[in-house]
Amino acid sequence: MNTTDFLVNFRQMTKLHESILKQICEQYRLSLIEATIISFLYNNPGKDTAGDIVELRMLSKGNVSHAVELLIQKDLLRRTPDGNDRRKIHLSLMPAATAITDKIAKAQDSLYAQLFQGLSDNDRKEFDRLNSLVAENAKNAMKKL
Predict the structure, then answer these.
(1) What is the CATH number of the domain that holds 16?
(2) Which of 51, 80, 104, 134 is deepest in the core (most CB within 10 A)?
(3) Shortest CA distance to 58 belongs to which of 40, 45, 74, 71?
């Protein structure tokens, strides 16, 4: 596999995920970044700060901050100060976001079924293992830059 093929494969999966989220955006009148934040918080318990979203989704701090404010105004998100570090603010989904997260879960199940069509359970486990290894290698390489 050459570099272009490798990068295109990841970009296609990202685009497919975004297109699924865009359908949800239209239904619930959300921006793509708002849906991305809801999806992130739903899928990543324990990773619940704006900094986590910025770091792990590689989104701009300003865009995340603005979208968080809009989601709070829409009563889909709430802020809770950390008990030990007042500078740290935890984000949590409000009950009003449940219909959205239900749609996200169904859409992600469909996405994974499409992406992993024809792969056995063992193939999927091996993919997960290799994907984790490649991600860790990429993370380590970024630290060296």
Answers:
(1) 1.10.10.10
(2) 104
(3) 40
**Count of structural domains within the chain:** 1
Q: Supply the range of the domain harboring residue 90.
A: 3-117
Specify if 126 maps to a domain. Answer: no
The per-residue pLDDT for 87 is 87
Between the alpha carbon of residue 26 and those of residues 49, 112, 119, 128, the distances in Å are 26, 22, 32, 31
This prediction's pTM = 0.88
Contacts of 122 (CB under 8 A, 6+ apart): none
Does residue 122 lie within any of the structural domains? no
Reported as a single tens digit per residue, the pLDDT across 44-69 is: 999 999 999 999 999 999 999 999 99
